[in-house]
Amino acid sequence: MSERVLPFDEALEVVLTQARSAGGRRGVEDVDLLASAARVLAAAVIADRDQPAFDRSTRDGYAVRAGDVGRSLRVVGSVRAGEAWVGKDLGEGEAIEIMTGAPLPAGADAVVMVEHVSVEGEALRVEGGRTLRVGENVVPRGGETLAGKVVLPVGRVMGAAEISVAASCGLANVSVFARPTVAIIATGDELVELDEPMEAWQIRNSNSYALAALVEAAGGVGLRLAIARDTLGELRAQVAEGREADLLLLSGGVSMGKYDLVEQVLREFRAEFFFTGALIQPGKPIVFGRLPSERGWTYFFGLPGNPVSTQVCFALFVAPMLRALAGRTEVASVFVEARLAEEVKGGARVTRFLPAELSGGWDGVEVRVVGWQGSGDVVANARGNGYVVLPAGVEHFPAGLTVRVLLR
Ligand code: AMP
Ligand code: MG
């Protein structure tokens, strides 16, 4: 078997390249605006009118001519949000009281804040020798967007900010991509399902649940298939079923052990492998490739079975691919920088991703590696909120060093 084990950055680049070209046939559905949260836009949102649709005051104050500031002005009326000024155009030496969000009366070209004036009866004065720019405290008509312009492109994930934009354009529902399906196959003779009686030396199948949860969070629909025992027959049957999904994930069976048969079975299905390992820890045995299927190709990842390895590999490699299959245009994961709270020993020849806790506030963020028993330690993993990245070949990571962290 030809092995192809890549350094972390090269493996990631391979996944991102495949993800960006993954395209594929994607269904589209119309959903209520609020139901679009976390979904991916399948049709651009277009501004139905200029925003703002009129010159809008951004302050409570007085609409004036900027050049008039410095002299005593006469207050001739008042306009509030939701109203239009129906009186005469504002003339020289005049001011009109105005509220935030109200349209600027014709003839005025700026708004002076209420905090900056003194008013006695009808007479208004701008205090303290202040001057005013033309356009100050006013957003001009169309200043945010013009009617007909794209305000949210296809491929954008809907969150509160995007929902607010769609609502501002009067959309009660939006068009989103159907979620990609992800077949999840846990492999291993030692595994038992959650509701089964078990012996002390057996292992509960937690990976199928972790993966299903991760899939949901990345915009997919997880299909948990039955556990495949470490036999060619069971693996063949499950892979045959799983390749009908948009993405196939297997956990376990990709190491060098006697019962690690996943790669062999994938090869029987005429898999093309992009890599068969990555220089990372945990997660080194990961395999990535694609299988010929009814839809052309189905991408697959064979993830190492140790639960933290499975989850790290998902965060690093599967999430970007899944975002792409979901129709998102931004597929790469964002790594943040933080200060190491405590020193960490280095010297590894692979890039390490250790469960870590990121915390902090105004004065910066710091990250602390959580103590763990290795890549089977789901309890320690759950104490963290991300993975700190420790590059290969560095002897020592002193406290205070800036390191990268992948949040989860
Ligand atoms: P493998 O990659 O198949 O050699 O699996 C490595 C170890 O990961 C196994 O010995 C189990 O302890 C653990 N493991 C494998 N599959 C699962 C699973 N589905 N859920 C929880 N732990 C697993
Ligand atoms: Mg196994």
Structure notes:
With 408 residues, the protein is an alpha/beta fold. The chain has helices spanning 8-21, 160-168, 207-217, 232-242, 262-268, 307-325, 378-383, and strands at residues 5-7, 28-32, 45-46, 56-57, 61-64, 73-79, 94-98, 110-113, 117-120, 123-126, 138-139, 150-152, 173-177, 181-186, 191-192, 203-204, 221-224, 247-251, 272-275, 277-281, 287-293, 296-303, 335-340, 344-345, 351-361, 364-369, 386-390, 396-397, 402-407. A six-stranded mixed beta sheet has the order 8-5-7-6-10-9, with no helix packed on it. A hairpin with a 2-residue loop joins strand 9 and strand 10 (123-126). Helix 1 runs parallel beside helix 6 (307-325) and helix 3 packs parallel to helix 6 (307-325). The protein is elongated, with a radius of gyration of 30 Å. The model has no long low-confidence stretch (mean pLDDT 96).
